[in-house]
Design brief:
CATH topology of the largest domain: FAD/NAD(P)-binding domain
Number of domains: 2
Shape: globular
Order of helices and strands: EHEEHHEEHEEHEEEHEHHEEHEEHEEHHH
Distance between the termini: 19 Å
Organism: Paracoccus sanguinis
Binding site for FAD: 9-14
Structural class: alpha+beta
CATH class of the largest domain: Alpha Beta
CATH superfamily of the largest domain: FAD/NAD(P)-binding domain
Number of helices: 13
Largest sheet: 6 strands, mixed
Number of strands: 17
Domain MnmG N-terminal: 5-374
Keywords: Cytoplasm, FAD, Flavoprotein, Methyltransferase, NAD, NADP, Transferase, tRNA processing
Radius of gyration: 22 Å
Strand content: 15-25%
Protein name: Methylenetetrahydrofolate--tRNA-(uracil-5-)-methyltransferase TrmFO
């Protein structure tokens, strides 16, 4: 049996990396600092804890790049996707999960694996030898972050991420709110009624925007700059970009009919998505915020149907760190200057639960292959995983490198057959090609 591979961080990426390594028969040591050393966003010491949304986004593997990434992770026997499927909740065309049950199941699966051992405590330096995967996520500890900067000679980049609030479902006024997924999307009644919808008139929307802009916000520490990832903008930042921005974003009223007043079209709609299997908790979709707690309760209770809402968790903001991977990491996810060190997850500059877990999957498979005397390259760029790896390890412009979700813009263009393809034909062509190429890569991995 080979020496163990050490994984620092038991989030999405670290958990998936550990699982993939053990599938190859190689032992793993997981180093996790929680709960002994906490973070702003985490509540537990469990593996793969979901700290922001409980959604893995679209599960459409024909027309959506995220859905294709889901498909590839399932094909590769991914632990994260297996547990997400087991604890999925109705969410229209999205894959949402019961976050606590999901995290507990990932933890149980890893603790039951004979080749996995856990070593609690913080790793605050880069080890000089051995095989290591650093999957410390966006909340890499200050000490480890400083060690990485010192070793690479480069400053860690940073952006800010915000967390949406969670509401107790029994405090939502259902004489105002109604159940419906946008465009009635979903194959079952549960899917088609997966969201709670709170309508606003124009006057209510304008008053809400005024209160949002005037609310007291969290201050940044000296030296911090507010660079946000566009996929997780706080609602007040969106409102500052224009009074109609939210109405064309998370509060868009399209694809919905007010069950209480079907003849009246809402000017804006706030959606809440189920957060647990019991249906007792709902998160406010797209409502990440840096408002102070007192201001949050006042502003969010202005939403029709939430006047008496009780909050299980209020929103917050935290600093995320990531490497300038195009200059520091090779296509095997190794630190160029120290190839015995790999990085995976959000710290590499991918954004999103699934993207992070996918980089953990690849890092784990690559590390296991190396431990067994083989070299495993990344999947082709025509696949979702391959497109992400290519982007963060050389495809992106280093000077302007920012966190990136998987999207078809990262894929090589599909050759036109018989003329220019529209989206309706082009997206299935991307995913059909990706499935074929990923299946071929997996057969060699």
């Amino acid at each position: 049996m080979s020496d163990p591979i050490h994984i620092v961080g038991a989030g999405m990426a670290g958990s998936e990396a550990a699982w993939q390594i053990t599938r190859a028969g190689v032992p793993v040591v997981i180093h996790e600092m929680r709960p002994e050393v906490g973070t702003f966003a985490h509540r537990t010491g469990d593996c793969a804890e979901m700290v922001c949304s409980n959604s893995f986004r679209s599960d459409d593997d024909v027309n959506n790049a995220v859905g294709q990434l889901h498909w590839e992770m399932r094909a590769a026997d991914g632990l994260i996707m297996a547990m997400a499927d087991r604890y999925r909740l109705p969410a229209g065309g999205a894959l949402a999960v019961d976050r606590d049950a999901f995290s507990a199941a990932v933890t149980a699966a890893l603790r039951a694996e004979p080749l996995v051992s856990f070593q609690p405590g913080e790793i605050d330096a880069l080890p000089p030898d051995g095989r290591w995967i650093f999957a410390t996520g966006p909340l890499t500890s200050p000490a480890l972050g400083a060690a990485i900067r010192a070793e690479t000679g480069a400053d860690a980049l940073a952006f800010f991420d915000a967390i949406a609030p969670i509401v107790h479902a029994d405090t939502v006024d259902m004489s105002v709110a109604w159940r419906q997924s946008r465009y009635d999307k979903g194959e079952t009644e549960d899917e088609r009624t997966a969201y709670l919808n709170c309508p606003m008139t124009r006057d209510e929307y304008e008053a809400f925007i005024d209160a949002l802009l005037a609310a007291e916000k969290t201050e940044f520490h000296e030296g911090e700059t507010a660079g946000y990832f566009d996929g997780c903008l706080p609602i007040e930042v969106m409102a500052e970009r224009g009074r109609e921005t939210l109405r064309h974003g998370p509060m868009k009223p399209v694809g919905l009919t007010n069950a209480h007043k079907p003849a009246e079209k809402p000017y804006a709609v706030v959606q809440l998505r189920r957060d647990n299997a019991l249906g007792t908790l709902y998160n406010i979709v797209g409502f990440q915020t840096k408002m102070k707690y007192g201001a949050q309760t006042q502003v969010f209770r202005m939403i029709p149907g939430l006047e008496n809402a009780s909050f299980a968790r209020l929103g917050g903001i935290h600093r995320n760190t990531f490497l300038n991977s195009p200059t520091l990491i090779d296509d095997r996810l190794r630190l160029r200057a120290h190839p015995h060190l790999r990085f995976a997850g959000q710290v590499t500059g991918v954004e999103g639960y699934v993207e992070s877990a996918a980089m953990g999957l690849l890092a784990g498979r690559m590390a296991a292959a190396e431990a067994l005397g083989r070299d495993l390259g990344p999947p082709p760029q025509t696949t979702a995983m391959g497109a992400l790896v290519h982007h963060i390890t050389g495809g992106a412009e280093a000077k302007s490198f920012q966190p990136m979700n998987v999207n078809f813009g990262l894929f090589p263009p599909v050759e036109a057959r018989g003329g220019r393809r529209g989206r309706k034909d082009r997206y299935p062509a991307y995913t059909e090609r990706a499935k074929q190429d990923f299946t071929a890569w997996l057969a060699t991995a």
